[in-house]
Sequence to fold (191 residues):
Amino acid sequence: MTWIKICGITTPRDAEIAIDLGASAIGLIFAPSSREVSLERARDIARSVRGRAELVGVFKEVFSVRAVHEAVGLDRMQIHVPGRPDVSLPILRAIRPEELATWEDVPVEETILIDGSEGRGLAFDWSLARPISRPFVLAGGLSPTNVEEAIAEARPMGVDVTSGVESVPGRKDENKLALFFEAVRRADARD
Fold:
């Protein structure tokens, strides 16, 4: 079963819809973005979903992770820069497709997230990920129309989607979410 993270969640309602459809994780962005959430909003979302899906904090720097974790209660952190925060949480380590040759440099206790676009909705050649010989998550440009192909091509343990299931930045589209989950389930059924 493919692990599914719906990232860029900005409202408890969007989080509820994603979890009801089967999301494994909800991504809360704590970096400058049209999807950035305040600590207050993140706490509201966390209260509504805690225990039903992983809460993943997305960071482009490491110095604020501890404060955010203490305020919100994250289950995992997604890091887009070098370094490791002094927080005992599992890490999703984002690397770009052009950095794939360095995947073995990522510590084994961290899960690799191959992000083709950092929220810009750009796909990449998923076959580039095939040489990775440990579990990884695929992100970047995924949508209901291509996620099935991406899973077949790259064989990730998980997928991470943001803009591909939105009506506007920061607002998830319930129909697109449902279609995304259906496509992932079709890919899983073929495997």
In short: The first helix runs from residue 12 to 21. Residues 34 and 144 are 22 Å apart (CA to CA). The longest strand covers residues 54-59. The beta strands are 3-6, 25-29, 54-59, 76-79, 91-95, 111-115, 136-139, 158-161, 166-168, 171-172.
